[in-house]
Each structure stands twice: as C-alpha cells, then as structure tokens.
Amino acid sequence: MSDAPQPGCEQVIADGLSEPGWVVVRDFLDPKATAAIEAMLRTRWESGALRPAGIGRGRTFQVRPEIRSDQVLWVDHEAPPAPLGIYLDRMEALRRHLNEQLFLGLNEYECHLTTYPRGSFYRRHLDQFADQARRQISTIFYLNPDWREVDGGALRIETEQGIHSVLPEAGTLVAFRAADYWHEVRRARRLRLSVTGWFLSRPL
Ligand code: OGA
Ligand code: MN
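# N-oxalylglycine complex -> structure
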C-alpha cells in the first residue's frame, strides 16, 4: 500500500455525492496516519474523555441510550489533537473540491471522535433534521484494523438499490447527503472507533 493519498479520491467522492448521493472509499488516509488517530482515540477513551452522545442540540439535547449508545468527544478546531491534523487537512481539501464541483456552499466541517463500546448501537435515523438543518454531507472515517463481520457494528444505509452494509474497517470513509439517507449502526460486539463529521452550509 502506498503512503500517498489515493489519487483522485476527492473526485471519486464528489462523483458519488453527485449521483447517487453516497459513496464509500477505502484507504482515505495512509495506514500509518489512520493508526495514529486510532491510538490517540484509544488513549482518550481509556482516560474517560468521551461522553454519552445525545439526540438534538442545545436545549433539545437528550441522552437516549435506547436510541444511541455511542460516546463522543467533539473536536476543537482551534486546537485539534495532533494526529487529526492530516485528516482535517484532507477534509478541508475535500470541502473546497465539493464546493467547486457540486456548488454546495459548504463553509465548515464539524466532527467528533466516536466510540461504540461493546454492545452499543445507533438506531435508524437521519442526520439532517429540524435543529441540524445546516448539515449537508455526513462523513464517517473508521479506525479499527481487522474488523470482521462477526464483530457486528456495520453501518447500514438505505440506498436507492436497497440496504448497503459497510464494515467499519480502518481507512474506510463513507460520505452521504445528510438529508437523504436513513441509516443505522448495528450493535457492535467490540469497541468500535471512528471520526464522525458533517460539512455544514452557512448559518441560515
Ligand atoms: C452518526 C452515525 C454512523 C457510523 O453518528 O450519526 O450515523 O457508521 N454514524 O458510525
Ligand atoms: Mn447518522
């Protein structure tokens, strides 16, 4: 496997988001960069830095473990953890590319580090809803090497062609139009690690 980013990866993602509206790419970062993010997230998880994820935002925020039982740590873009630098640079390049190709007017990327402890899941949902109206494109970047089918934790996206299942394998990036795709995370049978983020449009 080469250390260089996959040539044309931004274009593959732009094409997929244009039609049909979702895309899965492997080796979005080189394995060393991905492993460094994984190690950083494991350390933060072990030190108790992540918090139960919720539904809604601001005053509507609620922790509802029967709906989602993952834990998150929002990334401070002013002072991101060092290993995330490469990832955030790639997302910035992708944001510019998507704006040039798809005229989406994306002006920000927000993301959190995510863990699904053994036994956790996220029921079927949409990422864009009333109080998350700025979310245009959802992205999930997976960090676990050697994830197997028996480990559970698949992302299931309801596509035009039926359900598409994605194993959360290190280096894989999934992106889809946030308003258009129902999806769920099946129960994980071991600790599942990822970076989950959204390209946002301008504040309304
Ligand atoms: C989410 C989500 C999918 C995944 O956090 O909104 O749907 O595969 N995550 O982690
Ligand atoms: Mn989601």
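# post-check
The first strand starts at residue 22 and ends at 25.
The radius of gyration is 16 Å.
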